[in-house]
Design a protein that fits this description.
199 residues, alpha+beta, six-stranded antiparallel β-sheet, four-stranded antiparallel β-sheet, 10 strands, globular
């Protein structure tokens, strides 16, 4: 829900400058969030492309969201373009790159049709994108390209996700071993004074 609202806000006001990778940690829940808005989202002919990874303990989930905005065409709000065709196909350096299934939601906001297409991805996916020279994706029949800044950003994202998903034994290898707990001798009722008159 958060990413959908974020994408709608970005779609309504296209960013004036390239976004940076944001990283937040919630000390109460232990949730760590890594988010990025693609540099190419400054181009109004491109969808607003956002990435979000949520890590809690040993579990993690990563999602990309594409937000498409269709302006009113004179006879009311424009019709959806992707409700019946919203698969995302990825090609990295000319080779196909698999990702999870897609989800679709569309809503009219202030006379504009906003369509959100989400797709689950993995840290391996982010690593493949971040180490590529050329990254293209196709939604239905429309093809788009990630900028060099986007590819470089996914390289940094992949490093953050890799560092966050190391096994606990590797991340704590340098930590000193905990001292064994000392046993507490049970003395039963021996705390009572032996001479009641000593009070």
């Amino acid at each position: 829900m958060r990413i959908a609202l974020f994408a709608i806000a970005l779609a309504a006001a296209v960013p004036a400058c390239a976004q940076t990778i944001s990283e937040n940690f919630d000390r109460i829940s232990g949730e760590r969030t890594v988010a990025y808005t693609a540099d190419g989202s400054m181009d109004t002919s491109m969808p607003v492309f956002t990435f979000e990874a949520i890590l809690v303990g040993d579990t993690s989930s990563s999602t990309i969201t594409l937000a498409f905005v269709s302006a009113e065409e004179g006879s009311g709000a424009s019709a959806s373009r992707f409700s019946a065709c919203h698969d995302i196909d990825w090609r990295v350096d000319g080779q196909p790159l698999s990702a999870g299934p897609t989800s679709y939601r569309g809503k009219v906001v202030d006379g504009e049709m906003i369509e959100l297409i989400g797709q689950n991805v993995t840290p391996q996916w982010a690593s493949a994108v971040g180490s590529a020279q050329d990254v293209r994706y196709r939604v239905c029949r429309n093809e788009y390209t990630l900028t060099n800044n986007d590819i470089e950003a996914f390289g940094r994202i992949a490093a953050k996700l890799k560092g966050a998903t190391l096994p606990p034994s590797m991340t704590r290898a340098d930590a000193p071993a905990a001292a064994p707990a000392k046993g507490v001798e049970y003395k039963g009722m021996n705390w009572r004074p032996k001479h009641p008159g000593s009070f």
